[in-house]
Amino acid sequence: MQKILIIEDEDAIRRVLVKIIKNENNGYEVEEAENGLQGLELIQTHDYDLVLCDIKMPKMDGVEVLGKAQAIKPEIPFIMISGHGELETAVQTMRLGAFDYISKPPDLNRLLNAIRNALDRKKLLVENKILKKKVDKNYEMIGESKEILRIKEIIEKVAPTEARVLITGANGTGKELVAHWLHQKSSRSKNPMIEVNCAAIPSELIESELFGHVKGSFTGANRDRAGKFEAANGGTIFLDEVGDMSLSAQAKVLRALQENKISRVGSDKDIKVDVRVIAATNKNLEEEISKGRFREDLYHRLAVILIDVPSLNERKEDIPLLIEYFSDLIAGQQGNTKRKFSEGALELLKDYNWTGNIRELRNVVERLMILGGEVITEDDVRLFANK
Ligand SMILES: Nc1ncnc2c1ncn2[C@@H]1O[C@H](COP(=O)(O)OP(=O)(O)OP(=O)(O)O)[C@@H](O)[C@H]1O
């Protein structure tokens, strides 16, 4: 059921609107207010998917209702109803955030179209909000150890700048998480963050993946295709496992960083790109450089800021917090109740011989939640924590 509120002081117009809307779709629930003040009260106390609002009304006019409603519930779309001679005001309300306007007397098709479009947009906004919440939840960074606090502090300082960042650390320590935070807290966050796992792409394909190609440039290239650098334009590219990139791809990335230009494979036309680069690796790049497998000049271009993410064993005090977080997350995902871990169980888990990969900790928590008792005890840990 989608809820629509009509705020209109003229009885006749209100009645026509209600009739049209109800006839159109019996999935619409319609409520009415006779003036702006009453309308605003209803908006404050009820949830609506759409408001149709007259401009000229006693007590509070439509422009004021729109402004006040936007301050408290900005997601509700407004369609303004403009009387004779109010066209200019109607256009102005769109600048203030109204979704659309219709003129009196309402034209049936125009009205129904505007309503459908406004409701679609509302649905999209809500879906986006839910998605964003989900994304934020997936990227929570748990930990109060001085190592994690230091990383958060660096992120706060570095994210708003254009500086390139190289994130190092063992597998599963949270490098990707750091990269997401850097993007989310930057002015580029409205644009995409494009991830490329350099280790997962065969070396003969990596250039085309990063820079795109033109039709006919190699067997199978049967149409022009943009690469990840172009896709990330205005945003961030995250080069994960950058230490695994071939030397020829490294040369091209270096050029992209030096000149802010790329060219698609098989073309000599330059394309300007505005991309911030964040890279990550679990390799020791200095060692790779000494072995001739990684370009030193590229290393210096990438590592303006270095963030080393410590392994779990170096910040054991975060383990109980992570256990609680994962227990909550798993319970939410699987629809069962969150499990309590006894003090003794937490102590044992703190001293467990972790590989350092946080995914291992998550798996152990999940295993204990399945195999352990209502409260997870030291005995449960002894019996079930090891594989
Ligand atoms: N501090 C943290 N708080 C909560 N979850 C975390 C934390 N650090 C890592 N994780 C979770 O652990 C998993 C592994 O983290 P992530 O993918 O960021 O690691 P990575 O170092 O990029 O791994 P890889 O080297 O395998 O690419 C992810 O699900 C991530 O959300």
From TrEMBL:
Annotated Sigma-54 factor interaction domain residues: 141-370
Keyword match Metal-binding: no
Highest taxon, organism lineage: Bacteria
Gene3D superfamilies documented for this protein: 1.10.8.60, 3.40.50.2300, P-loop containing nucleotide triphosphate hydrolases
PTM-bearing positions, type 4-aspartylphosphate: 54
Pfam families in alphabetical order: AAA_lid_14 (PF25601), Response_reg (PF00072), Sigma54_activat (PF00158)
Protein name per Swiss-Prot or TrEMBL: Sigma-54 dependent transcriptional regulator
Organism of this sequence: Lutimonas vermicola
